[in-house]
TrEMBL record:
Pfam families: ADH_zinc_N. The keyword Nuclease does not apply. One of its GO terms (molecular function) is oxidoreductase activity. It comes from the Bacteria. Gene3D superfamilies: Medium-chain alcohol dehydrogenases, catalytic domain, NAD(P)-binding Rossmann-like Domain. PANTHER family: L-THREONINE 3-DEHYDROGENASE. Keywords: Oxidoreductase. The keyword Disulfide bond does not apply. This is Zinc-binding dehydrogenase. Residues 167-273 form the Alcohol dehydrogenase-like C-terminal domain.
Length: 333
């Protein structure tokens, strides 16, 4: 079965081409894709050849994982539904995660159309006024939701989110919705303004202020730190401000540098959370949050490209000082 896909042919090489996907079986849903959402952090890491799968970094001697069709999130219309799939019908607008593909280093793919996807990785979108594109990044949105839902929150607790990217934005939104007073640490004025304008976080520009000193001067006692960028140095600067029985949520990719001295957490009885991946219940809650409007995705979309121009999208994404935050590929004719 023929399809079109965004292919990482090699390190730093992106193309749009025809590919082979398997014929659908009884457990599959075929999705005519409308929008796919680029996961800039994860996909860039693959494009640079920094990892070979999941959380596994590349080491000399490993096979380079190319060609591959990266990505893991998209929305579209179900056109064919296998006989064993009961929750989706042809014509339903759906969200889908990874799909199946042939002839690539990995046998799964993200940015591919049509997408032959196991029914367990397909969700019918809720009815309502929220446009389908708002759900296109639901796996990544779920990462932020996962970060923000892990620690217990008492109303008014101070939570500090390290990172102003998408995961940081959605973690902050989730913590705010649960009653926390959220501070967001970041280096991008435009992204920090999004959090402030959205009303879910107080911005602290790390190029302008010392966040730890700023919070110390304000007499803040931190209950939660969420690290979305893998900055243990920033966490260590904040740790003296964390109260007894507080929480650290570590979600940034640390490669082989992820050493945390557990003994340094013990005196304050800091609980460490290490969210990763997705689960069906968390995806259900994330999609519900988007539908209800407290998880905001559309304001974070900064760029849209036709899928056939994905190479241009990646040129912009990887450019120094790139303005990209949420990047959508549009698959419509």
């Amino acid at each position: 079965m023929k399809a079109e896909a965004v292919v990482f042919d090699d390190r730093e090489r992106v193309s749009f081409k025809h590919v082979e996907v398997p014929e659908p079986g009884e457990h599959d849903v075929v999705v005519e894709v409308e929008y796919s959402w680029i996961s800039i952090g994860t996909e860039s890491s693959y494009l640079r050849g920094e990892r070979i799968s999941g959380e596994v970094p590349y080491r000399p001697g490993d096979p380079w994982p190319f060609p591959q069709v990266a990505g893991y999130q998209k929305v579209g219309v179900a056109t064919r539904v296998g006989s064993a799939v009961t929750h989706i019908r042809p014509g339903d607008r759906v969200f889908a995660t990874v799909s199946r593909i042939e002839g690539m280093f990995f046998d799964y793919a993200g940015h591919v159309n049509p997408a032959v996807t196991d029914g367990r990785q397909v969700w019918k979108l809720p009815e309502g006024d929220v446009p389908a594109v708002a759900y296109a990044g639901a796996v990544l949105t779920q990462v932020g939701y996962n970060c923000g839902s892990r620690p217990p929150v008492e109303r008014g607790d101070t939570a500090v989110v390290i990172g102003d990217g998408l995961v940081g934005q959605w973690a902050a939104q989730t913590l705010h919705a649960r009653g926390a007073a959220v501070c967001m640490l970041g280096r991008r004025e435009d992204r920090l303004r999004l959090a402030e304008a959205g009303g879910y976080a107080r911005p602290l520009h790390t190029r302008a202020v010392d966040p730890a000193e700023e919070l110390r001067s304000a007499g803040v006692s931190i209950g939660i730190v969420v690290d979305t960028v893998g900055s243990l140095e920033t966490f260590r600067a904040l740790q003296p401000l964390m109260k007894h029985d507080s929480h650290l949520v570590s979600a940034g990719y640390l490669g082989e540098r992820g050493g945390i001295d557990i003994q340094t957490l013990r005196e304050q009885e800091i609980t460490l959370h290490t969210p990763s991946g997705w689960t069906t219940p968390r995806m259900d809650e994330t999609i519900r949050g988007i539908a209800e409007g407290w998880l905001k995705t559309e304001p974070l979309i900064t760029h849209r490209f036709p899928a056939s121009e994905a190479a241009a999208a990646w040129q912009l994404i990887t450019a120094k000082g790139s303005p990209c935050l949420g990047v959508i590929l549009e698959w419509g004719s």
